[in-house]
UniProtKB/TrEMBL annotation:
It holds the Pfam family IMS_C. Residues 2-188 form the UmuC domain. CDD domains: PolY_Pol_V_umuC. This is UmuC domain-containing protein. It comes from the Bacteria. Belongs to the DNA polymerase type-Y family. Keywords: DNA damage, DNA repair, SOS mutagenesis, SOS response. Signal peptide: none annotated. GO terms for cellular component: cytosol. InterPro entries: DNA/RNA_pol_sf, DNA_pol_Y-fam_lit_finger_sf, DNA_pol_Y-fam_little_finger, DNA_polymerase-Y, DUF4113, Rev_trsase/Diguanyl_cyclase, UmuC.
Length: 429
DNA sequence: TCTGGGGTCCTAGGACCC
DNA sequence: TCTGGGGTCCTAGGACCC
């Protein structure tokens, strides 16, 4: 039996945990540059504010109803997520951290010790709330896809008290019939449109599909597995997370600039900063990358025809996690992409092709130099951990401007980093 | 004026190999 | 004119997720 624990309106809930005055009011959290809505309180949803909507389009609504719009505070959310996941890890033999606000638990064999699983789930739910002030819903079912579906039903139907267990054919069928097909995990916009045109409008209808239909219309083997999972046959295993942190297969750092940029030095500053950040994340999970991609984007909402993005990739001669090396190659790729006279709005650096033990290969080429580089990188990470991200940087990051980097955007509505920054600790009193 | 960021998996086609 | 079969690796692109 799988359990899916999902935090309700996670970013808004994190903000409320430290600012109880936000309780009961319409609140939204904004994306980078205060651009789009990425989390909404129930009250904000009730006002008809859609997920992903740009703030400027709903400005009248926000002002009319006094909606609190907050900049995103990822230091806070990451820390709160760690607390929730740490507790969940203690409540089940295996835990998969699926995203910042969701986790799958394996509850195999747990009923024997803890009695009915829905009762156990209610305990977990109230304890998460007591410890962190974060509300959750929990879906329990024999497959991951059904656990997601149970979770969604529990969210929509307050009479269920935040927990739904699908442990019989009758209950499963009951749940399948009340979920629209577009809300099934793995059915996005394209597939939903296709299914509706075929007359399939509910999860129950999808569960009745033949394997051939699923394969033909829903992306081959992916669709076949989806339908099997709805029928109650597990196709997806739990992928336990090592001490709550995920080892990624790719690492990206991408940003829309605070304003459009046309100077090479300005964009280089951004790309070098992104490469540095990506290298830090890479070292934190102990990987070395063999593939480096840089992309540059122009305004995709303008009149210019697509493509709005161009990218360039290089296979590194030696896998590495060395910031200086990665910045050097990123600069070369940027040079290949750069078109003078073009105005860019966004850039990104992506690291791929990981292998373990990259450091060994590095030292093969530079028997003592490799170790020296490793020590330097460790020191760099330690300093940045102590004094804050970006305290110590390679020169290219600084670009032509000694002051604020021109690619950095606005975060005018950010709340303090209550839990992670010495200067912004929560004040009691 | 203002439109996020970071991931996953799968498929198809070409190059290349024996 | 005839001119195999099977495998791997790489890349691009599509669809989905939170």
């Amino acid at each position: 039996m799988f359990a899916l624990v999902d935090c309700n309106n996670f970013y808004v809930s994190c903000e409320r945990a430290f600012q109880p005055s936000l309780e009961g009011k319409p609140v939204v959290v904004l994306s980078n540059n205060d651009g789009c809505i990425v989390s909404r309180s129930a009250e904000a949803k009730a006002l008809g504010i859609p997920m992903g909507e740009p703030l400027f389009k709903i400005r009248p609504l926000v002002e009319q109803h006094g909606v609190q719009a907050l900049s995103s505070n990822y230091a806070l959310y990451g820390d709160m997520s760690g607390r929730v996941m740490g507790y969940l890890a203690s409540m089940a033999p295996e835990l998969e951290v699926y995203s910042i606000d969701e986790a799958f638990l394996s509850l195999h064999g747990m009923a024997r010790w803890h009695g009915p699983l829905d009762t156990y789930a209610r305990q977990i739910r109230s304890e998460v709330r007591r410890r962190t002030h974060i509300p959750t819903c929990i879906g329990l079912a024999p497959t991951k896809t059904l656990a997601k579906l149970a979770n969604r039903v529990a969210k929509k139907d307050p009479s269920l008290g935040g927990v739904l267990l699908l442990d019989s054919n009758e209950r499963r069928q009951w749940a399948l019939e009340r979920v629209p097909v577009e809300d099934v995990w793995g059915i996005g916009r394209q597939y939903a449109t296709k299914l509706h045109s075929m007359g399939i409008t509910t999860a129950a209808g999808l569960a009745r599909c033949s394997e051939a239909i699923a394969r033909k219309h829903l992306g081959g083997v992916v669709g076949a597995r989806l339908v099997r999972e709805l029928q109650g046959y597990p196709c997806h295993q739990l992928n336990p997370s090592e001490d709550g942190s995920l080892a990624r297969q790719s690492i990206a750092c991408t940003r829309t600039f605070g304003r459009p940029l046309a100077q090479f030095e300005d964009v280089l500053g951004a790309v070098a900063a992104f490469a540095s950040r990506a290298a830090e994340k890479l070292r934190r999970q102990g990987s070395a990358a063999s593939l480096l991609t840089v992309f540059l984007s122009q305004n995709r909402f303008g009149n210019a025809p697509p493509p709005h993005t161009r990218s360039a990739q290089v296979t590194l001669p030696v896998s590495t996690s060395n910031t200086t090396e990665l910045v050097r190659f990123a600069r070369a790729l940027l040079g290949r992409l750069w078109q003078p006279g073009t105005v860019y709005t966004k850039a990104g650096v992506i690291l791929d092709g990981f292998e373990q033990g990259g450091q060994e290969q590095l030292s093969l080429f530079a028997p003592d130099g490799g170790e020296r580089v490793e020590r330097l990188m460790r020191k760099l990470d330690a300093l940045n951990a102590r004094y804050g991200i970006g305290s110590v940087q390679v020169a290219a990051v600084l670009g032509a401007h000694p002051g604020k980097a021109p690619w950095k955007g606005q975060q005018q509505r950010r709340t303090p980093a209550y839990t992670t920054c010495w200067d912004e600790l929560w004040q009691v009193g």
